[in-house]
Amino acid sequence: MASVVIFAIIVVALVGRTPGWSVVRETFFNAEQFTDSFPGLLEAFWLNVRIFLIAEPIILVLSLAIALVRTMRAPVLLPIRLIATVYVDVFRGVPTILVIFLLGFGVPALRLQGVPTSPLFWGTAALVLSYSAYVAEVFRAGLGSVHASQRMAARSLGLTTWQTNRFVVIPQAIRNVIPPLLNDFISLQKDTALVAVLGPIEVLRQAQIDASSTFNYTPYVAAALIFIALTIPMTRFADWVQSRMTRRQRAASTA
Amino acid sequence: MILLDVHRVWKSFGELPVLRGIDLTVQSHEAVVLIGASGSGKSTLLRCINGLEPVDAGDITLGLGTPGEVAVTDPRANMDAVRRRIGIVFQSYNLFPHMTVLDNVTLAPRKVAGVPADQAEADARTLLARFGLADKADEYPDRLSGGQSQRVAIVRALALQPELMLFDEITSALDPLLVGEVLDAVRELKGGGLTLVMATHEMGFARDVADRVCFLRDGIVIEEGPPEQVLGDPIRQETREFLARILG
Question: What is the ipTM of this complex?
Fold first, then answer.
């Protein structure tokens, strides 16, 4: 603990001695600017939270379905399996921000009847599509981690393929991938800010507006702090879950 | 009545033939013990009987000549229904680690046989008590010893009230001290008149419980008969050599 304090003092002292520090302090860490913009930013952040809360459940369902399709071996399912594979390859290969641009500007430009044109809708949809590809791979690894003998035992009891997945394989698979899943949750929470490029006034966009009207960058720092206030507890929680599971596994293997 | 009829069954894994036209007939209430070296085809035969492994050629029939006759090897057969009638217990228990003992046992009755949850639970508790596991119902499998795990696996297979039970070297993974309690459970089933087919290396137990012993070698039964004859005074040279090796 003492070493941390000493290190922090050294860093602060060094940064404080840089030639541009007084200007940086004024433009990034202006207390007055901070208090002025903070309430508005917090309000805008509520949109980020809502994007997250809508996107995450859809991602979980979609990605689990994709992962299941990819693990099934029936020849009849070959076309669906191919589609799932291509989907994962494409969306994992394209930067998320590009997907947001392409969907957010591209789909409304098609002027299709009955299709939403809201940038918020397409921004969220882009996040769902992009993250589902990643999370599907997490689930696929989880499904693969369940030993084949579990499937055999379930089948030998007369459970159908679907019942075997539903009651035996999927619960164990999810349990095995909870830590990486939580990691992706945290990442998604941050990436909701990418929707800013389409215009909806979420926290980053709000900070941008504040900054360009005052020529002061403190709102960006304030926005960063808001994200941190949410992501650090999430990270700690993920770590806690992970260590608890490791302990349990150790206990189980010595039983 | 012939409960199980295995007729000239062939099975290869890739280039390696494991079953080479094997025949086996099991009567109702009979306890048949399969012996033979590792790789002789015992486990593969058991897996083919309840359709976990598809056969390459031959027929396996359940309930021959009865209204419930089913050709297990018929691709159109409803294998989920067949497996309800045949219980199998594996060497490595394969309990579901995310469920309590009680849920392990009631899963198939509830989801496969459609037994109401409270009824399934009551039945399961009765069965668990019969095998000395009454106090383990609410434990998770990682809290059980090997012997307890294997007895739970037996109860789980029994919960569907199968006509035929298959045991695949169920004591091979156990601490020698725990073998007895699992074999006692099998003895109890035999006493209750259930039809059993059991692959094992426990020759003493085979002598004690089997109505018939079959010696497998290279994927066929080369000698079979009452235990005192096959184990005590085998006709075939190969059987003698095997027994000499295993009994040390």
Answer: 0.90
